[in-house]
Amino acid sequence: MVAAVVRDGAVVDAGYLTMAGARAALSDAAKAQLVKVVPGRTPVTRDLDGLGRYRVVAAPARRGGDVVVTGLPMAHVDATMIRVLMIFGVVTVITLAAATSAGIVIIRSALAPLQRVARTAGEVVDLPLDRGEVALPVRVPELDANPRTEVGQLGSAVNRMLDHIAAALSARQASETRVRQFVADASHELRTPLTAIRGYTELARRVGDDDTEAAVHALSRVQSETERMTRLVEDLLLLARLDSGRPLQREPVDLSRMAVDAVSDAHVAGPEHQWDLELPDEPVIVVGDGARLHQVMTNLLANARIHTGPGTVVTTRLSTDPALAVLTVTDNGPGIPDPLQSEIFERFSRGDTSRSRKGGSTGLGLAIVWAVVKAHGGTIGVSSAPGRTQFTVRLPLKADA
Fold first, then answer.
1. Which of 337, 342, 344 is nearest to 385 (CA)?
2. Which domains does the chain have, with CATH numbers?
């Protein structure tokens, strides 16, 4: 403890108590510092010469005009504060380390599903998606696709995206397969008449004037194969135009009259069949391309004639729904095999290849029917069983029909 008695601005007596309880004198500098303390109730901190920091206060004495200055050392307080700060610092460091470790564990645990989602996406990136048949067996696990959490919503979205990509890739592969098959079939179909034309041309050149009958036969076969190849090219050109979305003619077409003409032509082409026709009392009018719709009827009737035997009853029925014209072609032939029904409207699809070739078919008749009906905004379907095969075409009616 330090104390001093100040009178008239000068120290009368001053000293401090040591740790052993003995009194010791202050230095002149320390005395000067104590003289400067202003009497009052508020303690002040002074760094006394040779003693260190002290908390001192000055107060008037009870008698006389003396001022008594007393002070207590701040060393213990400072040491305590330092220890407290050190404790706080250590505790803070430990707390921060613990919090950081816990945060890392929690964040890693929370982001583990996101890492699995990223791993799934990485596996998809490594797949060869640009060629061949592609399968996407990888999916985000159901545990990581819970829509109740943000990461789960992401996983669910990734799964939906992968499903969409898989469907698109399957469609692409199927389209490429159909294109390759179409090109191969078209090449094969064109190669057959070209080979025949070349053979008969060489035959005609060899026989010359020596065998007029053989030359005439060869030229007639050349003409027949040329016409067949022309029909094939025209059918391919029509399908290409329909695939490109080229608009057809739009004019009122009387399906009733067209059905009469088509059945009459079919009767002439196949007199060994029985051709029946059922029409409503009023004409059935649609808007479309008359030539193409006539081709639809002709192809359906020709298909029934070619693929059924003599004596088969082929019934053409025309009716109306509230807003649709319904055309059905039904025969009591042997029916269409079940494996073929799903692909009967595919190009170059045949149930009996040799018979179709002999009958002059290119394998594009029903494909043209499907494309023309679709271009008119209609639908076509087939149902077949032994003894009954029916093709059903539905077309929108003319608004004021």
1. 337
2. 2-73 (no CATH), 123-246 (1.10.287.130), 251-396 (3.30.565.10)
Beta-strand pair 2-7/10-17: antiparallel
Q: Which residue, among 181, 266, 190, 265, has the nearest Cα to 228 in the 3D structure?
A: 190
What is the average pLDDT score of the chain? 83
- Give the Cα separation of 156 and 139 in Å (integer): 9
CB 252 within 8 A of CB 288: no
Task: Write the CA distances from 83 to 52, 55, 76, integer angstroms.
Answer: 18, 20, 10
The residue whose two tokens read 């969409």 is 164
Whether 195 and 203 have beta carbons less than 8 Å apart is answered as no
In angstroms and rounded to an integer, the radius of gyration of the C-alpha atoms of the chain is 52
Burial, 155: exposed, middle or buried (Cβ in 10 Å; 0-12, 13-18, 19+)? Answer: buried
Cβ contact 206:215 at 8 Å? no
- Between residues 354 and 193, the one the model is more confident about: 193
Quick one: which of 316, 299, 319 has its CA closest to 307? 299
359 pLDDT higher than 70: no
The pLDDT, as a whole number, for residue 76 is 87
Residue 180 confidence (pLDDT)? 75
Amino acid 158: pLDDT: 84
Long-range contacts of 356-364 (CB under 8 A, 24+ apart): 356/306, 357/192, 359/306, 360/228, 360/231, 361/302, 361/306, 362/189, 362/228, 362/231, 362/232, 362/235, 363/185, 363/189, 364/232, 364/235, 364/236, 364/239
Query: Which residues are CB-neighbours of 217 under 8 A, at least 6 positions away?
Result: none
DSSP one-letter code for 339: H
For residue 88, pLDDT beyond 90: yes
- Neighbour count for residue 350 (Cβ, 10 Å): 18
